[in-house]
UniProtKB/TrEMBL annotation:
Domain DNA polymerase III beta sliding clamp N-terminal: 1-118
UniProt keyword Metal-binding present: no
Protein name: Beta sliding clamp
Lineage, broadest ranks: Bacteria, Bacillati, Bacillota, Clostridia, Eubacteriales
Job of this protein: Confers DNA tethering and processivity to DNA polymerases and other proteins. Acts as a clamp, forming a ring around DNA (a reaction catalyzed by the clamp-loading complex) which diffuses in an ATP-independent manner freely and bidirectionally along dsDNA. Initially characterized for its ability to contact the catalytic subunit of DNA polymerase III (Pol III), a complex, multichain enzyme responsible for most of the replicative synthesis in bacteria; Pol III exhibits 3'-5' exonuclease proofreading activity.
Domain DNA polymerase III beta sliding clamp central: 128-240
Compartment(s) where it occurs, according to its Swiss-Prot or TrEMBL record: Cytoplasm
SUPFAM superfamilies attached to this UniProt entry: DNA clamp (SSF55979)
């Protein structure tokens, strides 16, 4: 096997595919990257849950394939001078790497030991702009559950219909929804739950460009195709929360807030809250303002944030991080906050236009006023 390739291209491909390599595995090949050279070079990483495969422009003079330890290979390429890397491997899996005046000899593993990445049937597929997919993942993934007792909620729900794509994440304390129209869907409406860990990698692979990414649903796997890179992950099975019936929308109180100003106010009163000294942020929604306060053993903090609308004197408590994240990820400068009682969820939606996002944050019970 022999090829030559620009160092920068090789380094970038190794960085992307290494994210799917198993850190520690009883199968040594899974701690490596599979290099397959024919008309071009393909590099794959796979940990039996998620696989990433990317094509690299290279001058292949002798086709072949080999597995190299991902960490060692990555460290070598990263330290090489900015030049063309020449790669040769013999029948005994001995690899010689040279670039400029630098030379390395390392031992690879047989590609026969490397498990094949799953094939994904293309019954259903959809195309979406990379920057849109990236934004939708970012603006919902924070609410994906990390609690393994409900595995289905450790992923995000994708619902594809003629109206567009809806993404939903829920962790028992908050819920995040993002909606966007779609350019093209094949095979009709479909839905699936993709693991949160895989979506984090999809977000990293997507660039801030209008080029399309394709999402394909197979019988047990999902394929994300972004440029020359493919990510394959196992779909999560189980019953996802019936989110449409979980969101109360008949809320008598509605106020409009400047997103940045409210985040800054919550941030200020959160100074006295810490891992050891936990406390909810107490919010008193009054006429055209909300009074925020927090009190712990560290001290007491108070602030006022101006709003539009009348909160009717409603007092409600929130986990500061959950409320702040919902506001931080809301793609709008102003938001409408719908409220009902001190023990009902807060609903955060856009103030105008299409309802392309909705965040729900459950309150924390407040002890009687001190």
């Amino acid at each position: 096997m022999k090829f030559s390739c620009e160092k920068a291209l090789l380094q970038s491909a190794i960085a992307v595919t290494s994210r799917a390599v198993a850190q520690k595995s009883s199968i040594p090949a899974l701690e490596g990257l599979l290099l397959h050279a024919d008309s071009q070079l393909t590099i794959s990483g796979y940990n039996l849950q998620t696989g990433i495969r990317t094509k690299v422009s290279a001058d292949v003079t002798e086709p072949g394939e080999i597995v190299l330890n991902a960490r060692l290979f990555g460290d070598i390429i990263r330290r090489m001078p900015d030049d063309v890397v020449v790669f040769t491997a013999d029948d005994k899996q001995l690899v010689h790497l040279s670039c400029g005046d630098a030379d390395f000899d390392i031992l690879g593993l047989s590609a026969a030991d490397y498990p094949e990445l799953p094939m994904v049937e293309d019954d259903f597929s959809v195309s979406i702009q990379q920057k849109l997919l990236r934004a939708m993942i970012e603006e919902t993934a924070f609410a994906v559950s990390t609690n393994e007792s409900r595995p289905i909620h450790t992923g995000a729900l994708f619902e594809i219909t003629d109206q567009g794509l809806t993404m939903v994440a829920v962790d028992g304390f908050r819920l995040a929804i993002r909606r966007e129209p779609l350019e093209k869907i094949d095979g009709g409406a479909f839905s699936f739950v993709a693991p949160g860990s895989a979506l984090g990698e999809v977000k990293n692979i997507c660039s801030d460009v209008e080029d399309l990414a394709a999402v394909t649903l197979g019988k047990s796997h999902i394929l994300f195709e972004v440029g020359d890179t493919e990510l394959i992950c196992r779909r999560l099975e189980g019953e996802f929360l019936d989110y449409k019936n979980a969101i109360p929308r008949k809320n008598p109180i509605s106020v409009i807030a400047d997103t940045k100003a409210l985040i800054e106010s919550i941030d200020r009163v959160s100074v006295v809250i810490s891992e050891k000294q936990k406390s909810p942020v107490r919010c008193l929604f009054d006429h055209d303002k909300v009074l925020l306060s927090a009190k712990t053993g560290n001290g007491e903090a108070k602030d006022i944030c101006r709003l539009s609308g009348d909160g009717g004197g409603l007092e409600i408590g929130f986990n500061n991080r959950y409320l702040m994240e919902a506001l931080r990820y809301a793609p709008a400068d102003t938001v409408k906050i719908e409220l009902n009682t001190g023990v009902s969820p807060a609903i955060i939606v856009p103030t105008e236009g299409e309802e392309n996002f909705l965040y729900m944050v459950l309150p924390v019970r407040l002890k009687s006023a001190e």
